Amino acid sequence: MADTFVLTATDLQKEYDMGKSKEQALAKVSLEIQEGEIISVIGESGSGKSTLLNLLSTIDKPTAGTVEYNGRRIDNLNQKQASRLRLEEFGFVFQKYNLMPSLNIYDNIILPVAVMNQKWDKEYLAEICKRLGIEEQLRKMPGQLSGGEQQRVAIARALVNQPKVVFADEPTGNLDSRNGNEVFRILLDCARTEGKTVIFVTHNMELAGMADRKYTLQDGEIIDKI
After folding, report:
1. Fewer C-beta within 10 Å: the chain N or C terminus?
2. Backbone φ and ψ of 50, nearest 5°
3. Structural Rg of the chain based on CA atoms
4. Contact between residue 11 and residue 62 where contact means Cβ atoms under 8 Å apart
């Protein structure tokens, strides 16, 4: 049976205009990610990890090279098309949680589907919240929760639209190692149970080791893949 690649990047390059000079963040990075794979991306600060994640997820556009999602080129989508793709197919977990302080926990979780005026599976959402241990927190405000609880909410929000791919950028960076590892294991367990693809950036080698494959970036290039 042929491999099914959900994401393919070919010769990705990214340069940032610094005025009198240009800074190269990525240099001809190519990779193929199979459906259902858990992929970690590691490297020192400034190695291009977050840039790669942003290009794969259409948050940013490459200077050169291409990105394909399920055989469809997505690096050249306009802003509206890219936004719709992210809302319908992708989920995101960020280091800083990015919860809306004026919304309660339930409304924060359903925000991605509410923006699209889409219905959501309430039984699925209830099950996710139970697995994340936040089912009793849904009427509280973000400021009433600990950092670990807020990240659990962010994971529930990333999963509420039942995405095909989850992108996570330093998802445990604001948590202590015990809480961080515990929360992230729940995300990976959910992803594996549902066959989701997960691509995450981390400095945490223990987390990186939970992935099916690991890419190491240095100076904008892949120097190792396991």
Report:
1. N
2. -65, -35
3. 17
4. no
